[in-house]
Every structure is written in C-alpha cells, then in structure tokens.
Amino acid sequence: MGIGDIWNLIAIQPMINTLIVLTSYLFNNFGVAIIVLTLAVNGVMYPLTMKQVRASKAMQDLQPKIAELQKKYAKDKAKLAKEQMQLFKESGVSPAGCLLPLLIQMPIWIALFQSIMRVLAVIPENLVGLSDYLYSWPIVFSTLPLENNFLWLNLATGDIFLALLVGGTMWVQQKMVMSPTADPKQQTQSSMMLWMMPIMFAWLTMTFPSGLAIFWVTSNIFRIGMQYFIGGWGGLVKSEPKKPTGRDKKYKERIAQVEEFPSLGADIVVPGSTQEEGSSYEESGDKRPDRGGGYTKSIRSTKRQPRRGRGHRRKRG
Amino acid sequence: MRIRNNNVSAGKIGLLVVLLLVGLTVLGCIGVKSTPEGGSGGTVADGTIFLAPTIKQSGGFGCTPPAVDGKLVALSAADGTRFWEVPLEGSRSGGGFGCAQTAAPAAIYGSPAVAGELVYAGGYNGKIYAINTSSGAVRWVYPREGTLEPIIGGVVVAMDRVYFGCSDGKVYALDAATGDKQWEFAIGDKTWATPAVSGDMLYIGCFDKKFYALSAIDGSKQWDFETEGAIASTPLVYNDMVYIGSFDRYFYALDAASGSLKWKFPAERWFWTKAVADNGTIYAGCFDGKVYALGAENGQELAAVDLGSAVYSWPVLVDGRVIVATEKGEIYAIDTAANQETLLADIEEAIYAPLCAEGGVIYVYSQEQNLYALNADSGARLWNLTIK
Lengths: 317, 388
Description:
The complex is a heterodimer of chains A (317) and B (388).
Chain A: H1 3-25, H2 30-44, H3 46-72, H4 77-91, H5 96-120, H6 124-130, H7 138-143, E1 149-150, E2 153-154, H8 160-177, H9 184-207, H10 210-231, H11 246-260, H12 274-284, H13 297-300
Antiparallel strand pairs in A: 1-2
Helix pairs in contact in A: 1-2, 1-5, 2-10, 3-4, 3-5, 8-9, 8-10
Chain B: H1 2-5, H2 10-29, E1 43-45, E2 48-51, E3 54-56, E4 67-76, E5 82-88, E6 113-115, E7 118-122, E8 128-132, E9 138-142, E10 156-158, E11 161-165, E12 170-175, E13 181-186, E14 196-198, E15 201-205, E16 210-215, E17 221-226, E18 236-238, E19 241-245, E20 250-255, E21 261-266, E22 276-278, E23 281-285, E24 290-295, E25 301-306, E26 316-318, E27 321-325, E28 330-335, E29 340-346, E30 356-358, E31 361-365, E32 370-375, E33 381-386
Antiparallel strand pairs in B: 1-2, 2-4, 3-4, 4-5, 6-7, 7-8, 8-9, 10-11, 11-12, 12-13, 14-15, 15-16, 16-17, 18-19, 19-20, 20-21, 22-23, 23-24, 24-25, 26-27, 27-28, 28-29, 30-31, 31-32, 32-33
C-alpha cells in the first residue's frame, strides 16, 4: 500500500462519504453539505487555529522589539540570535507556534479540497473515479450523482460574484489580524500580504468550481468570526501605530544596560509581555488593542523572574 | 543582510503561508480531472472504422490540459489507413488556468452510429453531427445555432430518426436525413446513457433513478421504473425483456412492454456498461471487476467471472465468446458454453471505450488514444495506431 492509498483511505474516503451522506440528509443540497462540513472541520480544528492565530498575534506584537534588537545588534549576529531567543523565551512566544498548527491543518484542508473536487464529478471520468472511494453504504450509492445547483450557482463552474466574495472575506480576515506599525518596511510587507492573497484566491475562484469557492468563503467567514472573538475588529478599525510607551523607554534603557554590562543580557524585561502587561497600558495611556484574552496561557503565566542589579522596585519611604 | 537572515517577521511567515496555500491548492487538484477527455469507441461498417478521438490541447496550467476539440476519423479496418477526418469544433476555452473548464469541449463519449450514407456522433459540446461516410462532408449539425447541454451518451439510429439523451434532461428524436427535430421529451433529470430502440419503443436510463420507456414515434411516455440509484448504463433488449444496471448496485430485468420487474440481481458496485446476451444468458460487466452470467429468465447467477478490474467498456459477442475489456487494459474472452475466461491481450492502457468487432477482428480504443486491432481468436495484435 503506497502513500497515495493510505492518504485515500484515511483522508479522502471518509471525507467524500461524509459529504455524500450529509448531502443526502440536507435535502440533497450539495452546497449546504459543503458549508456544514466546512464549519464542522473548522470547529474540530478550532483549538489549533486559535493557537496559531494567537501565536501569530503575539509574534506581531513582538515585532517592534525584534526590530529594536536587530538595530542594536546589527554587527553581532550571535548576540542578536541570543537576544531574540531570550525575547521569545521570556514572552512565551515560539516562532514555530505560528506555522506548526497551520502545517497540521493543511492535510485536512487538502483532503476537504480534493473531496469536493471529486464529489462534484461533472464529467464521466470523475464519476467513474469516484466509485473507487465509496463505502458500501446504500445511502451513498442512492445519493449519487449529486445535484450541482445551489442558489444561483452551478457548483461545477466558476462564478465572478463568489470570486469577489472570496477575495473580500479574505481581505477582511487579513486586515483584522494586521497590527498597525510605524516601520515602513513592515508596512510594505503587510500591505503586500493584504492584497496579494485575496487577489490570488479571487483569481483562482474564477477558474475553479464554485463548490470550492463556497468552502473558501465559509472558512473565511468562520475565521473572521474567530478573529473578532479573539481580538475584536483588530486592524479593520483605524488606529495609529503604536508610539513608544513608557515601557518601551525602559526597554531601551535595558538594552543600553546590556550593551554596557553584557552579563545582564538575559534579564531584559519585555514591555508588553505579561510580566508587566497588567500595568503597561494604563501607565502609557494607550488603549488595549483587543477585547481581552488575547495572549496565550504561556504568556500570561510567565513567572516574574527575580531581577538583579538596579531594578524597578520602589524604595520604601 | 545578516540582519535579514535573523528576521523572523510576520511578513515572511505570511509569505510562506501564501506560497504553501497556493502550492497546496494546486497540489489538491492532482488526481482530479476536470477536462472531459472523451471515451468514444469505434464503429465498424463496410470495412471502415469510424472513431471520434478528442484533440487534447497543450498549455493548460491547471489540473489537466484543456481539451477543446474533437474530430471524426474514418479508417480502413484492414490496416488503419486514414480515409478522412473532420474536426468537430468545440467552444473555445478561456485559457484553462484552473481545474474548471470555462467552455464546453467537443469530447465524444458515445460511439458513432452509422446508417446508410451517414455517420452520426454527439459531443460534450452539445452538438449532434451527421457526416457523409464516404467524403467526410458534414451533412447537418443539430442544433444549427447554439448548443445543447453536454451529450455524454451515444446516438441510436432507427426508423429514420436519430435518438439521443442529453444532460439537459431531455430525450431527442431528429430526422436522420435533415437533422430536424421530430420530438423531445423531458425526463426527470440529466441522462448520460445511450438509449436503446426496439420495435417502436425507446428505452433510456436517467440520473433521477428512473428507467423510461418512450414511444419512439412520438416520444410519449409508455412507462417508467424506479430504482434506488442513478442509471448511466445502456439497456439491453432481449426476448421481450429489457435489462439494465443501476448505481444502486442492482441489475434489473423488466418486462419490455409493461416495465414490471421480473427479477433483480445484487452486485458489489455500480453497473455502467451495456450487457450482452447469448443463448439465454445475460453477461453483465460491473465496476466490482466481475462479469456476471445470469439466467435471462430468472436472474439466476450462473457464473461470476472475476477479471480483477472494473468493467466500464461495452463488451462484444464474437463467435460464442464474450469479449470484454477491463479498465486496466486487459482484454478477456469468456466462453459462453463454460463461462470460463481467457486473457486475450493486455494493452496496459485504460479502456473506457466500447469495443467493436467485425470479421474476426476486435477494435479497442484506449484512453491513451491508441487504436488496436486484435485477432478475436488469439488476441494477436494485427496493427495499432495513435489517433489524436
């Protein structure tokens, strides 16, 4: 049994048969079945997606600090790497935390994607091929072939309105996760990302069957809802790039100290990390950019480390 | 530059995600065809094979290259010499970037039908063509303007009419000489099946799970029979009975006059191909890789010949032997006296197209667009040609 067979057995076959059975129970409406299955898969992967979104957000929030470090240690690569690692450690942020959940989810998305393509079976070759993936359930055999019409759509052909919807929802989702930044380089990157992906997917939607577009739109709307739950409207609401806060000033002072006394390197206190998160917004007068609950447990639970040297303790009296 | 190497920025992660998504989206297409490639077999008449291959266009970025045109070819049955070929134009594609085809290609699935001096073929592009067998000149095209929905099944010529079913959910009868529409009848859903005409009755299966008997004269419905699955197979009319397989995995025997069920036989998977009959036995190929030999009167299973691969192609009957091809490309002869199979040839190419035979020679057209002429007794290859 090759990898392809295993993939079909554990991923494609269950997904295809689920889609067909769902269609049967949902009034033989394949469009509704795609929406329901997409929501179900999104629901199952909710914890992973949430982890990824939070990790990305935390990583974005660290960008000013990382930029600061890069500026300071431009000529000392080893030191920069060490400081970055320390920053990640103290913030409880793992760079892999953004990608790992995404990579785990990818096979599931591909399976769903391939299943929709196969179940659509608009040409005889596909319908013949589909028969290889069917379980021997009578309901499966009696439901096929599926009806391709949904609302005004022929699910087997592309549709311009859906293409716009895919692009639009993707743009909104991207915009929501985007943090305002004063760094022009980062602004350019963000802007490129914001437009490139929606345009690309809108273009793909024009040429792919609408069934896939329904899957994309449903996923996007689900994620928009999730983003709203995590961080409100985020970047959709106009806000000024973060100005250096009191904490940031202290952070710069700490970097200066580290430069002066390298042994202090591991003790940089990260403004905005949970060690001092509770007070930072109040002290700086900035509004907290989200609706709360925005950081991972690991960030929130980062223990306050004992500090050496001149600290922030107030002298009594 | 060193600074950049260490930059684990959100932008870079995002870019990686985009690349991943696009790459995997394209990967997700792999293995899923969306361009119809056709599956027409040959039809032999008076020493000429008529074949309708698909012209596969190159240059598509998507899952498969877009196929936009077909053609009808006339060849010598003796050695494959090409007499003529005529293009069956399809609607031009918009470019074929993705998995979906933006216009209907002229892929041909049903084998051409020959009657008198004309050969007829229906295409995925929703057109029926009538072409002179000698010259290749197009006599008429239906419809003259515009197109119907895709025509997947083949055409049948009887009573000076051309009959076919269409994906628009209608059965049509055209004047064979002029292409003028005689009648049309709306069935419950689209049909991919080739009809069968016997006497003044026309039989055709439909995706609405029903099997219809219509008057071949005026198209009026005589009866219908409902199964539990869609019907894409072509019926066999034999001894006042009509035999049909369904997606519900049953093979049905119905009274040809009334549509009443005589018997039904369960298999493991779909029936798609047309059955053949010989000496009171029905031979029905199935997607489960078996050819079932069933008593025509009572449906008793006489044998289940396991060929190991799905049977999609129509079999032919040659000198008391059922010649049947599997999807994997093996061609077997089943001796109807003993119901024993013999491997005649293995062309190692997928076979979907109906087989045809004349003068002790079997003609097999593969999905790789190769036409093979095989000796029906020994399976020896007489000649083969790539017909594109």
